[in-house]
Amino acid sequence: MCEPCYLSQLACCCGSAACSLCCGCCPKIKQSTSTRFMYTLFFMLVTVTCVIMMSPTVETAMQENIPFYTEMCNKLNAGENCSTLVGYSAVYKVCFGMACFFFLFSVFTIRVRTSTGCRAAVHNGFWFFKFVALLACCAGGFFLPNQERFLEVWRYVGAAGGFLFIIIQLMLLVQFAHRWNQNWSSGVKYNKIWYAALALVTLVLFSVAVGALVFMIMFYTDPEACFLNKLFLGVNGGLCFIVSLLAISPCIQTFQPTSGLLQSAIISVYVMYLTFSALASKPIEMVERNGKNVTVCVFPYNSGLQSETNIVTGIGTAILFGCILYSCLISTTKRSSTALQVYRNDMPENERARCCFCCVDDTEDYDDEKTAGGQNVKYDERDGTIYSYCYFHFVFFLGSLYVMMTVTNWFHYENAKIERLLEGSWSVFWIKMASCWVCLFLYMWTLLVPMLFPKRFQA
């Protein structure tokens, strides 16, 4: 009974057929979605491996529970207690292999515009062979010559790629803010309740931003210390206020009528989040009071309990995975890829306001093809590709570098452990603070560019 389903899954792994599940009650899946889901599984598998490599807790558990652990390490020539298979250097080598895998596919799929060619078939199928290739790339990093020089050079390549990935995240946020306001504004002429929805959400977001600013002023400043905290809280708060005024100024409204406070509220909340994350990542400061050194400008919840530290680290790691997956997958859709271009103020005639506008498909309905014994597959790329294969792999290439740098605490890699992911370091502080300014600059640019280049933005 299940033989046809097994054959279809075998065709998925070893041929160009679209992947589906054996369960016939599963919801329909598009061919393009299936492909991106499989690449995401590859990416997550390697990312989880990197997290495990950076965890001394896991390393200790392996030593205690795996029989003949020391003998196995000796036979593999992996050093004492498999020291070469864990730590920041191992993460660099594994991520180097994953980055090479996605970069090669990015080059391989340049200018692929139809799903019927051989290159498109390789991109959409042959998953078993691609999985073997990924494992070979990751393992090959451990056999590179002159590894000390490689690690030194690869560190700066990873920093550049990781920061570019952050910029893509920020551009997606700006595009999301404009998209949200545009979609809800389109419903105003049909139902005035959308006015109330816009006003309510804007008020809530600004309240959160102001509350976060007050919270940081209370807990992350001190009369005798933390000068940088005071400076950046004032600068970032002032910039958020400026862009909010700019968004509703008459000169901007003339060229961009859909500009409003909702976008600036979203940007302000995210900037406050980045500011909080930066201040929390800053090395601790101490002042002398009553003959004792007192730690200042830290959130007082931390009681030092190991359970609390594990919970916070787990939440931080989950947020990291979520942000990476969102950027890798959402940025490659047809609609969201326009975030890498200058925002254009054009509202489609058939735009319809929706509460969950970001979940609406960009594609039309396609004929279903029943996979034998299993899930329905919608072949949505018969008339051409609906996303750029090359750009898709390039985003995952940058995501690989971002994972590598984040898991190893950027330039403070020597003592990096996944359990210390949220501990302070200057490199993480400056990267997150710079991200605040880049986000504000990108949003301000989308407001000003229609006024600076009006001919380019005429309908």
TrEMBL record:
Residue stretches spanning the membrane: 37-55, 90-112, 124-144, 156-174, 194-219, 231-248, 260-280, 311-330, 386-408, 428-453
Localisation: Cell membrane
Principal subcellular localization: membrane
Pfam family, one: Serinc
A single cellular component GO annotation: plasma membrane
UniProt-listed InterPro entries: TDE1/TMS
Catalytic activity entry: a 1,2-diacyl-sn-glycero-3-phosphocholine(in) = a 1,2-diacyl-sn-glycero-3-phosphocholine(out); a 1,2-diacyl-sn-glycero-3-phospho-L-serine(in) = a 1,2-diacyl-sn-glycero-3-phospho-L-serine(out); a 1,2-diacyl-sn-glycero-3-phosphoethanolamine(in) = a 1,2-diacyl-sn-glycero-3-phosphoethanolamine(out)
Keyword annotations: Antiviral defense, Cell membrane, Glycoprotein, Immunity, Innate immunity, Lipid biosynthesis, Lipid metabolism, Membrane, Phospholipid biosynthesis, Phospholipid metabolism, Transmembrane, Transmembrane helix
Record membrane topology: Multi-pass membrane protein
Record flagged with keyword Calcium: no
Domain of life: Eukaryota
Gene Ontology terms: biological process: defense response to virus; innate immune response; phospholipid biosynthetic process
Database matches in PANTHER family: SERINE INCORPORATOR, SERINE INCORPORATOR 5
Similarity comment: Belongs to the TDE1 family.
Name of the protein in question: Serine incorporator 5
Organism: Sinocyclocheilus rhinocerous
Lineage of the species this protein comes from: Eukaryota, Metazoa, Chordata, Craniata, Vertebrata
